[in-house]
Amino acid sequence: MSAVTPSAFARFSADLSSRWTKAKPLLLALGVGLVAGPIISGMMGFQMRTSTAQTLAHNGVVEQQAVYCADRARVDTPDPARLDWSARNTLARRFTTNPPGGTTVDPDVARACADRLAR
Fold it and tell me: Quick one: CA dihedral 96, 99, 104, 108, positive or negative?
């Protein structure tokens, strides 16, 4: 080897240094994006937590069952709005059972049904 020709290690080190200098801003931006991206999109409302989705789904099911319960109760009692709260609640609990005639009552559905009967 002559003194003018650099060694293979020196060429490799220079090439690696040049590549690192070019890639460093891209890798830094990628790292910041991976950390800040989910935080920013969550704060803007683009993401939803599982518990929030489950609550919204439960509320939708409760509302649909309350509509069905209130319709069935109005067939049995023509003007349930004139009843007091406890009578409306008892009426709602009677028609809240799912399947009809069952024994289990969802208290959320019973409350929503009684509120609908008050209107």
Answer: negative
How is residue 77 written in tokens?
């009692």
Write out pLDDT tens, residues 14-41. 888 888 899 999 999 999 999 999 999 9
What length does the chain have? Answer: 119
CA angle 93, 99, 105 (to 5 degrees): 30
Q: Which has the closest alpha carbon to 77: 116, 106, 108?
A: 116
Burial bucket for residue 39 (CB in 10 Å: 0-12, 13-18, 19+) = exposed
Q: How far is CA 2 from the centre of its chain?
A: 69
Answer whether 0.85 is exceeded by the pTM: no
Task: Determine the Cα–Cα distance for residues 72 and 103; give it in Å rounded to an integer.
Answer: 17
Contact 70, 85 (CB under 8 A): no
